[in-house]
Hints:
Strand order of the largest sheet: 10-11-12-13-14
CATH architecture of the largest domain: Sandwich
Mean pLDDT: 90
Oligomer: single chain
Radius of gyration: 38 Å
Number of strands: 26
Structural class: mainly beta
Helix content: under 10%
Number of domains: 3
Amino acid sequence: MSQTFRLSLPLIQGAQAQKHITHNEALAILDALVQPVAISAEETAPPDGVADGDLYIVAPEASGAWAGEQDSLAFRLNGGWIFLRPGEGWSAWVLSRNGKMVFDGTSWVLPAASGADMLGINAAADAVNRLTVAAPSTLLSHEGSDHRLILNKATPTDTASLVFQTDFSGRAEMGTMGSGAFGVKVSTDGATWKNALAFDPATAVPSYPAMPCFSATSAGGWREVTAINEDLPFDVVTLNTGGHFNSATSKFTAPVAGIYAFVINGFLAGATNSRICFAVDGLTRADQMQVLLGAAPLSFTSILNLNAGQAVTCRTGNVNAMFRYFQAHTAFSGWKIA
């Protein structure tokens, strides 16, 4: 027998000359295999600047001085290479991956984590975050067909969700949060959250809890206005999601930029002979103005593209002889549509 069974260490033969050469080679191989640390598992040929003592796991499609040595441990010794064929179960720490790899009898793979209490990949796991990964991306792929990521919670009032953070401060969350309904909520600071979207689990009908909308009327009977560009009062609020309508000024202020629809519905007296429109930041929209004449239902709709902070009121037009309407039957409404 010229070498050991498991590590293939060279043995000193009887009456061998220069026994120290064989002995030193065996020690060098032991030095490489005991607590092995490989520089890389991605190289297919010797890289530049190698030095004695360097250890590599030879990658597939090996070439050059490593040709035909795929999956071998390449050990640099005395300016040359010694190739050590791994056995099933051998392991080595790989510096380029900052982790351990195991030879499964066919190739080098990452060790299975089955049954582990926690696992940190390039990061430290803890009692709450028992699986922690620090990487540019994380891929979960199929194994021939479908692939599902399942988030399971104990009871309907618990939470199963996906949270998006900035510097470990929450900015968005989606899932079944505190109920059986799927929803989306957002935050600017990770402390105060607003519901943005919700789906009824029984009907699948969506709702938008934060969608700006309002409707307001005013108390009283017939009111006559003869002045031009006069804002009409609407001080009885029936709907004001988000609180963007001010009943004291009868103004709706756009919370965000977007396209908004505005409607006024009511009833006109026979003496009416005037115009009506909407104003943006106190400027009458002459391009969207309706002429009113005689006793008739009042119905006027306008679509406006607003910037955040712009205010809209309903007013008489730039030509006005007599605008007579019934206040309690006249409503000013608006909502964001896009």
